[in-house]
Amino acid sequence: MPKARTILYGLMCIGLAVGLVSCGEGCGCGGTEEGPPDNTNRIKPPPPPDPIEEKRTALDGTKWDIDVVRMADKGRKREPDKLIFVNNKVYVEKFKAQGYRASNYSLRMEPDGTAVWETMQSREDGDGVLFLKGEWREKKDGKDEKMGGVIIRHPKKGKNEDFAFISTAPPSRP
To answer: Mind listing the domains of the chain with CATH numbers?
Structure first.
């Protein structure tokens, strides 16, 4: 039965290594005859993933086809545009072409799972600020993924302009 002893010895060594068994003989395993060593110095499992960072990662690299509507216009003509999330920044193509820089955005979660993001962008020439706020609803219960929100342009001179936007299709992803 030497093979059985070898197996038993191997299991004891494994038990000592993981702290399940202690010899109580001062061998350095940290245990006592009363029980295994204190596990406070052990490597702890990683914390659960942050749902906000998971959403931010899911948004990064997406391009949304959107319709933008100027709220003051009668008839509310829809203008197609693109809303782009890249490198943890967001921008609307039309406004970027007008000099508004892509910017970081804050993100929070609503109890129903809707992700709400907000940002403020300044023009490169300093002539105004743009505020964007959007809501992203992932595909759920047979309903398609949607993005919608508002854009408020504050020029240094003149009146503010309010816009609304809504996605016209699910986003393209890399």
So the answer is: 2-41 (no CATH), 51-167 (2.40.160)
Residue range 23-73, pLDDT digits in tens: 555 555 555 556 555 556 678 888 888 889 999 999 999 999 999 999 988
Distance of alpha carbon 134 from alpha carbon 142, whole angstroms:
21
Amino acid at 111: P
- The angle subtended at Cα 113 by Cα 108 and Cα 117, nearest 5°, is 30
User: Tell me, what amino acid is at 43?
Assistant: I
Determine the Cα angle at 57 with ends 167 and 45, to 5°.
150
Query: How does DSSP assign the chain, residue by residue?
Result: -HHHHHHHHHHHHHHHHHTS----SSSSSS-BTTBSPPGGGSPPPPPPPPHHHHHHHHHTT-EEEEEEEETTSTT--EEEEEEEEETTEEEEHHHHHTTBPPEE-EEEE-TTS-EEEEEEEEBTTS--EEEEEEEEE--BTTBPPEEEEEEEEE-SSS--EEEEEEESSPPB--
